[in-house]
Amino acid sequence: MAHAIESGILGDGKIRALDGLSASGLRPRRWLRELPEDAAARLIATAGDMDQNSLDWGAATEAEFPSGRGELHSLLGDLRTSVLSQGWHWIDIDPFGSPVPFLDTAVQALARRGVLEVSATDTAALTGSSKNPLMRRYGARVRLDKLKHDSGLRVLMATVARAAARHDRSITPLLSIWDSHHLRVSVQVRRVMGGANDIEASLGWRVFSPDQSEVDASVAAGLLPADSGSDLPIRCFLPLSHPVARGDKRVSGPMWIGPLGDADTMASMSQERALELCGPAAGEAEDPACWSEKQFEAERRRVARAVRNIAEESQAIDAAHLIAVDELSSWLERGSPPSPAKMVAHLQKQGHCAAVSHYAEPSFSTDAPWSAILAAFDEITAGE
Fold first, then answer.
1. Are 10 and 117 in contact (CB under 8 A)?
2. Are strands 43-49 and 71-76 parallel, antiparallel or unpaired?
3. What is the per-residue pLDDT across 78-137, written as a single tens digit (0 to 9) for each?
4. 335/205 Cα distance (integer angstroms)
5. Is-contact 254 202, C-beta < 8 A?
6. Which residues, other chains included, contact 178 with Cβ-Cβ below 8 Å and sequence gap of 6+?
7. Statement: the pTM of the whole predicted model exceeds 0.85
8. Closest CA to 377 of 348, 349, 335
9. Which residue(s) pair with 183 in the sheet?
């Protein structure tokens, strides 16, 4: 939010922000407390919930520990209707389970330029463990493999993009993360009909163990770098127009096949910036929890760890490959899993774009041809 405000994508006036399923209102209070003072002063933050007791609890907490910045309001009602009470520049949807029931009205309630943040806690569905709910809610399938969380994020992003397109809006992904029990995407939404019409170009399929014809189709569509080598990659993307067999268990999708984030937004999420905004320090303010110095330091480490590799990965957000290193060695049936950092350093030295990934598995992203990745693997594992 700090980056969105400072970069100007939300305009230069007051910003109406809604946490639509807020419970006790913690997130809107954090917006006001942790944003830079000039950004927080522009914020009209609203905690929305259909439980009056939750809103009362949040109001009592604010009264006892006032944010002292911006404005804080409450909105009682079912988000599927209450969100339409006014236009919003920022809407956060963080439900228990699937966000699908809330997407259409949230998109309609956004201002001409706005940001939509969507969490999904039905990870069993989105990552392919529960196939029937995945098909019912998202109209997709996901192969249960090392990249299941990335595939789940891409299915969620595609669902948000289709909801936006239904209302003549287009999206630009800002950030996508997997963390423990939930998947979360943040997108800029604009009322641009041309972009809404182009949604199909950003949707497609992910294929495990592709054959030569599928790799050729991926290269022809600009989804995979051309390669003079004869070895085939572990996976590739295919455009939505490419025919796939319904029963082919290698195939995941339909999903978002474009970048899952914005380079400038991700680059702003460095560990230093995270600690500056929301890393507590002993002695800065009254501490009702009576934390020790050790507890403050542990919390600062958690804050830094939460954004580890996001800023670095911004350098490779357009990369064609996301590779889990233990799967790579297993796929090649030789060597041991190499360090993602060593793979990245080697590929960068060869002139390729590469970065350690902010992902559940030790992994890296790169735009290098598959033959260059294999050469880096062999050189690194030979020296270990």
1. no
2. parallel
3. 999 999 999 999 999 999 999 999 999 999 999 999 999 999 999 999 999 999 999 999
4. 30
5. no
6. 149, 150, 152, 153, 184, 359, 360
7. yes
8. 335
9. 120, 178
Burial class (CB in 10 A: 0-12, 13-18, 19+), 38: exposed
Q: Are 164 and 188 in contact (CB under 8 A)?
A: no
How many CA within 13 A on the CB side of residue 145?
A: 23
Residue 69 phi, psi dihedral angles, 5° rounding:
-140, 155
- Per residue in 296-349, pLDDT (tens digit) is 999 999 999 999 899 999 999 999 999 999 999 999 999 899 999 999 999 999
Sketch out the chain's domains with CATH numbers: 2-199 (3.40.50.150), 280-306 (no CATH), 316-384 (3.30.56.70)
Which segments of the chain have a pLDDT < 70? 195-196, 284-286, 384
